[in-house]
Amino acid sequence: MARAPLQVLPGSGRTARCLSALLLCALLPMAAARAEMLITANALFEGRALLTIDGNRRLLRVGQSSPEGVRLLSASATEVVIDIEGRQQRLAPGAEMGVAFAQPERRQVSVPLNERGEYRLVGTVNGHQLLLMVDTGANIVALSGQDADRLGIDYRRRGQSATVQTAAGRVPAWSITLDRVEVAGILVRNVPATVIEGPHPEPALLGMSWLTRVAMRENAGVLYLQER
Questions:
Q1: Is 133 in contact with 118 (CB distance < 8 Å)?
Q2: Long-range contacts of 213-218 (CB under 8 A, 24+ apart)
Q3: Burial class (CB in 10 A: 0-12, 13-18, 19+), 41
Q4: C-alpha angle with apex 50: 44 to 56, nearest 5 degrees?
């Protein structure tokens, strides 16, 4: 993957020289898969129910939803009514049922390698558009001070000051946390990042603090990023 000669974090991060070409990336939605959820009505009470959902015991009150997405609509000593994806199901005490449901669609973006051996793409940082270069040599996302100012990131007040080594020597930098970094619908929140005073890196680096939180693979000069 793309590497560059400017160090942004001690011992690992690297950034890019100024480059001009931008390649488009294509969003490839993954087909929604079907799966089955196994639900058992262990014990029913007035207004409450103890259910086993895919091996997890959940005590729900009417109106509550389990982490698996099962919502309790009503409960009595003789029957429980649950909702899964807008479909109502009824269970008697001790009854067990398998419910087919659609697993969430996972977004995927494909990024072709450019003539300089880089993977570039457009994303958003805190809701603002930004050109990014994928860099597995950078251990966190890295932005220039100019980009941070343009995006309205108050890194001097909110960040922790530090210095980083660049080709021009050591320069001021700030460690911050970005609220959200999104690429083609793949959203990662609370992303550790570094802001480096001045115009570099250009473009910003999509480093490992974002990349390790998605699925990533390369094939025939194309990088595929997919939400987990």
A1: yes
A2: 213/188, 214/186, 214/188, 218/1
A3: buried
A4: 155
3-class DSSP state for residue 216?
strand
Q: Which helix (H) or strand (E) is 125 found in, with range?
A: strand 120-125
| Cα–Cα distance, 72 to 75 (Å, whole number) | 7
Residue 11 reports pLDDT greater than 60? no
HSE toward the beta carbon, residue 110, CA cutoff 13 A: 10
Residue-range domain boundaries for the chain: 6-29+106-227, 34-102
Residue-wise pLDDT for 17-73, tens only, equals 333 233 334 444 444 445 678 899 998 999 999 999 888 899 999 999 988 889 999
Sequence-distant (6+) residues with CB within 8 A of 50 are 41, 42, 43, 44, 57, 58, 59
Quick check: 22 and 122 in contact, CB under 8 A? yes
Quickly name the fold that domain 34-102 has. Answer: SH3 type barrels. (2.30.30)
The rounded distance, in Å, linking the Cα atoms of 134 and 141 is 9
Which pTM was predicted? 0.58
Superfamily of domain 6-29+106-227: Acid Proteases (2.40.70.10)
